[in-house]
Amino acid sequence: MTAIRGRSVVPSPGRLGLMEPTAREDLDVLGWNREDSVDVQWALSRAPDADLALRALVRLRAAVSDADWVEIDRLLRSNRMFRGRLLAVLGASDALGDHLVAETDAWRLLLIEELPTAEQARAEMLASVQAGPEPEAAGGLTYRAGVSGPAAVGALRVAYRDLVLRLAAQDLAPVVEDEPVLFLAEVGRRLSDLADAALTAALAVAVREVLGDDPLTGRLAVIAMGKCGARELNYVSDVDVVFVAEPADSTSARLAGEMMRIGSLAFFEVDAALRPEGKRGAMTRTLDSHLAYYQRWAKTWEFQALLKARAMTGDLELGAEYVAATSPLVWSAAEREDFVVDVQAMRRRVEALVPENERERNLKLGRGGLRDVEFAVQLMQMVHGRVDETLRVSSTLDAIDALTDGGYVGRTDGANFHASYEFLRGLEHRLQLQRLSRTHLLPDLQDAAALRPLARAAHIRPEGRSDATEVLLRELRRQRTRVRQLHEKLFYRPLLEAVTRFDADSLYLQNQSAQRQLAALGYAKPERALAHIKALGSARGRRGQIQMLILPGLLQHISDTPDPDAGLLNYRRLCDELVDADWFLRLLRDDGVVAEQLMHVLGTSEYIADLLMRSPDVIALYSSGASGPKLCEVTSDDVVKGLIASVRRQADPRKAIAVARSHRRAELARIASADLLGLMDVREVCRALSTVWAAVINAALEKVIDAMATEAGASAPARIAVIGMGRLGGGELGYGSDADVLFVCDPLDGEDETAALRWAQSVADNVRALLGTPSADPPLEVDVGLRPEGKNGPIVRSLASYRAYYEQWAQAWEVQALLRAHAVAGDPELGLEFLHMVDAIRYPEGGVSAEAVREIRRIKARVDSERLPRGADPTTHTKLGRGGLADVEWTVQLLQLRFAHRYPQLHRTSTLEALAAIEEAELLPAEQVAMLTEAWLTATRARNALVLVRGKPVDQLPGPGRELRAIAYAAGWPQDEAAEFLEHYLRVTRRAKGVVTEVFGE
């Protein structure tokens, strides 16, 4: 084993970390495979990638002269600073190794102790293209190059790479020779200075190429944006710029375009996409034109971009005027009506950009990545910077410190997030240095060989039995987990502190500041939200402690919903209802999935929130079971069995119905929750709603019959059945649908028919009265309006009476209504007999008469012109609008009336099943059936979403705004795609209306 002092034993390549089979030969080439080279070998072993460094050294040995190699070898043995810098660069960056090999004198730059100042860097860049000063009258452009074309680009590239080499060498050197660490903030500032110098030289070349020797009379300022503007640039990054010109003419545009072209060829991508109107906008604008755009047209993200604007080169006086004029606009952007919507939409778009298989590896856009920090910090700056000028800084690290000093972030949290951001950015720098490429994607996290050089370049050392790679992965998980809590830490914890206690040793948000923050998070009434937070966070005892623990995360989830005000209020109401239920807060604390899903429900659906107040046990189903979400493990059949069993145990009909209501309430909460959370499709929702409705009617009917029999001391004199009509009969109920039914009875043998009918009438009246009892639950409306003779006819008829009426008097609309008749409750045999009887009416041999078809068409035309509510928009009324539910259902029913006698597969009460049968029978082309099907599903989903959001039956979609965003979200669309949701609805229903018109016009 080699001793620390007086090393004399030559270590093996393996002990030096050299894995390449040619390592020993390479050491021989360098003359290092001897005892007098042991110190150099051990220094080599400390390079981030010893093999990479050794290969580069061999290439460098071949490229330089013998005399130069003798000098390099001597310096490596005797000069710790030079040795540390050269080996660190060669072991961390393949690209910089290529530069050293290509530019054989570049190694001498590593002997310069001090890094160049910004002025020195600019001078070096300008000298590389022989740029000299311009006359003072030249519009603030003080340099014009002496060379142009490819030669200028080549000279700029070499000069810039030399400057980057010097900076990277000092940044990386502590890995090898324990030099002082160059901290991230200084690296970012120096890289920004290099970018300023580089583009100053590029602009000088552009002046030469565009103007030659002609004078320039206009003014052109280059404004740095993004990381360069904030002086926190990466080693490899796009440099975002904006151009201001006086005048903004073709000459200024050519200068700007040429500067970008030269800069992109020589240094890095120069991007002007942040200019007004983006890539479609003019390359240069006057200051007045910029201001007019920002004041009238700019979107929220454009003001966020202006937060980092800085005059970088060109006419710096004009650039300073631009920054001074646009800065106030940044600090008023949070007052814009669409501020929160724009910010949330932008965040979702950023997250959606990252492929699923890269989210853990993407340092910038992945969860817990750099963008999470930057996004939150900028949002807080824009919210509070309106009144607190200390927050008006451009650097992310400076902003975190300012937010901490101002009390907007706790001191410990601020320090932690400062450290997390430095760690992630430092890792990004090392990743980009490897090939000087613009990347944010880590190697495969399972590939230790690829991660090891990165860990060593990032100054990460082994700990205990863990090597550097294991330490890197552990630290990466820790830092990203901490950043994942960013919004909780930066937004919500200080809010709690502001309303629950005041710590004399720290500064916390005052009420006005907290209200501004809440407003920026989407709360329309921040003062009320603050009161709710105070009430929740101030609960006594263990309950209050748990609330303080979980509220930050809950508030974060609520702010992502369409209506944070309603979500917070609903959560407070729920907590008040469950004040004695210890399991509730424990569940939210221990199960993050339940917490997130419940908050999303409470902030989206008034309908579900009201149900959960009275059926809180459903919340436990939000968690996951062994086979998936528990909300889907329960089936409607299970609910029906439980409902019937519970009702049968009650002797009093009113108590029995109360029990049935309770089961129905819980089932509605389960169905609606699964629907909103995307766990059930619209067909399943409609089927489940129809099933529970039928079960309640059946339980009520059974209990009323038993009660009447007990009271009369005699058994029932007749059989009775309930026939579902409309959507209930089709098994396609929505949340706001009534239950259309017919009551049919059949006297038992030997019973007086008149007495039996009176008995059945009493049963029907009692069932309707029981179900119609006022309640806080969604109403149980039993509608008998489709009975023979309508409102003038008896509510109950015997089977024989129905047969006689339909055979002799049935009108076209009544035959049409029978197409959806289906037995849902009561005596199953009687229900089946009724259906067999009406089959001859709705599916007659030879089909319905031509006169009946004409009558249906006439009624449809009248419905179209008269039934739409006054003031309703026919394009967005989900039930009676163009291409809406009624249009599709009438079209299906017309085809059934015309062709069901010929095609038995049309004997379906479900609209969707009938559409499938119509396609099978080829009565309509498949594409037209698809249009009608999509329109029915789209309208049903939208109608259900209306009820979920508003909490009551509604058929009219609203115009653009918060409510439409909520409805779009409830219908399964992202909030920021409400306009797309509405456009999709209009497109789908418009196509369906074309089919409807064609069918009814035949």
Automatic annotation (TrEMBL):
Tell me what this protein is called: Bifunctional glutamine synthetase adenylyltransferase/adenylyl-removing enzyme
Q: Which organism is it from?
A: Gordonia phosphorivorans
Q: What does this protein do?
A: Involved in the regulation of glutamine synthetase GlnA, a key enzyme in the process to assimilate ammonia. When cellular nitrogen levels are high, the C-terminal adenylyl transferase (AT) inactivates GlnA by covalent transfer of an adenylyl group from ATP to specific tyrosine residue of GlnA, thus reducing its activity. Conversely, when nitrogen levels are low, the N-terminal adenylyl removase (AR) activates GlnA by removing the adenylyl group by phosphorolysis, increasing its activity.
> Its catalytic activity?
[glutamine synthetase]-O(4)-(5'-adenylyl)-L-tyrosine + phosphate = [glutamine synthetase]-L-tyrosine + ADP; [glutamine synthetase]-L-tyrosine + ATP = [glutamine synthetase]-O(4)-(5'-adenylyl)-L-tyrosine + diphosphate
Required co-factor(s) are:
Mg(2+)
Designated gene of the protein: glnE
Which lineage is the organism of this entry classified under, starting from the top rank? Bacteria, Bacillati, Actinomycetota, Actinomycetes, Mycobacteriales
Q: Where do the segments described as Adenylyl transferase lie?
A: 503-1002
GO terms for molecular function, please?
[glutamate-ammonia-ligase] adenylyltransferase activity; [glutamine synthetase]-adenylyl-L-tyrosine phosphorylase activity
Q: Domain named PII-uridylyltransferase/Glutamine-synthetase adenylyltransferase: which ranges?
A: 345-491, 876-999
State its Enzyme Commission number(s): 2.7.7.89, 2.7.7.42
Residue numbers spanned by region Adenylyl removase: 1-495
- Family classification: Belongs to the GlnE family.
The UniProt record lists the keyword Nucleotidyltransferase: yes
Q: Which UniProt keywords apply?
A: ATP-binding, Magnesium, Multifunctional enzyme, Nucleotide-binding, Nucleotidyltransferase, Transferase
Q: Which residues belong to any copy of the Glutamate-ammonia ligase adenylyltransferase repeated domain?
A: 150-321, 596-836
What InterPro entries does UniProt report for this protein, alphabetically? GlnE, GlnE_rpt_dom, NT_sf, PII_UdlTrfase/GS_AdlTrfase
